[in-house]
Amino acid sequence: MSGSAEKVYLAIDLGASSGRVTAGLFDGERVRFEEVHRFFNGGILANERLHWGALTLWSNILEGMRLAHRTYGERVVSLGVDTWGVDFALLDRHGDMLGEPFHYRDARTKGILPDAFAVKSREEIFAETGLQFMEFNTLYQLFAMKRAKSVQLESARTFLMMPDLFHFWMTGEKVNEVTDASTTQLYNPLTQGWSAELLQAFDLPGDILCELAQPGAKLGKLRESVATETGLRNATVVIPGSHDTASAVLAAPAASVPGEVPDWAFLSSGTWSLMGVEMPHPVVNEECLKLNFTNEAGVGGTTRLLKNIGGLWLVQECRRIWSHAGIDLSWDELVARAMESPPLRSFVDPDAPRFTAPWNMPDEIQAYCRQTDQAPPEHRGEMIRCILESLALRYRMVLTMLESLVGKRLETIHIVGGGALNEALCQMTADACGRRVLAGPVEATALGVVMVQAIADGSFGSIAEAREIIRRSFDVKEYLPGPSDPWDQAYGRFGVILARGVR
Description:
The protein is of the alpha/beta class. It has helices at about 55-70, 115-120, 120-130, 140-145, 150-155, 160-170, 180, 195-200, 225-230, 245-250, 285-290, 315-325, 330-340, 360-370, 380-405, 425-435, 445-455, 465-475, 485-500; strands spanning about 5-15, 20-25, 30-40, 45, 50, 75-80, 90, 160, 175, 185-190, 195, 210-215, 220, 235-240, 265-270, 270-280, 295, 305-310, 410-415, 435-440, 475-480.
């Protein structure tokens, strides 16, 4: 196809710190990206509660759609939205939103797990959901609202996850997309439906949940008001893997045999790190429960067996604190300073609860180091090096658990997402894990959103074919592990430090 004949698929990719509308242009052989609109996202503190600005996000989505129509006109075939998981909006009987959605880092679920386990044991909840226990999971957010006698929950008639909300505002159709629904700890991966047992046990209104929809489902054309506002009268809304990790994993440029466990792990690297294996089936057993891994629905009927790891959020929060003090340093400047600092000196547990939403991340990191008998990082470069090396060592720990769960050695780690641009972290990951790392594509989440639309459109016929086109379209960078002795010694110290830390 010529440039003017390229099909255009829009990916509306909302992350925890930014959002963007990106055009995927497919010429029949390769796909390329053009950014249409980028905007800020983040928590908004009001009345001591942390919320998302859903209406502000919607305004930016509309602006991106308008710009896309201005640029590509009738070549825009379809569009779809992905976001982070667990968070949701509640609608009243008129379909109006009952307040801005809560942010998963809001404090209302802090310390809630023991109370939840008094209703249903950890073992019983895991048997129903196969999901990793994190106190901000949707189940515990709803449980907190129920205990507080929330007027919003009492008035709710519809429950929509964040991407479902935007798809509803686009089309008027209310569904819960399955990859995002699987992050709620209310979805049963074995029955592939909502858990009536947990809804009843926690006295939650199951009637507000919607029908589950699969990635690739066509919701239809835009509402008349939205079509008029944006100009996109002929575009179809196609549900992607609307949980961002589901879309990112789809875009990993790896080969898999259907029905078999692959020999590669994925590492979706951004605000969060999510490390796992694309499995042909859920793994819901005692070892998975003990290791606190999660089974989330993937695109194409797969299961993402993974663990959440506190990712580059720690760096982002350090940058925020330094910026407030008038010190604005780019990612490249911070990494350069890190690489000039002494290696393997001090470590933190990226998953320690104290790093979930601290007031001052640099102070919290220094306090953790002092409390675990380490010399705290004093300079910004030392701080960033501490974070990056700690992440790499945590990846090694999680990889070891993952190989135990799947019963085979995972030869390659595919790093996708923004973290693939961090060459220092990619090399540290290869060194710490002793594995080949393939980094890229950076635009993995948006790419996954686009590829589901292209399959739904008939541009190609399968995920395997989509991945072949991704390999043809995007470069990946290879990192090979260096000498293992320094990292082996550091890994031993890391385990001792985590045991000392207060989790």
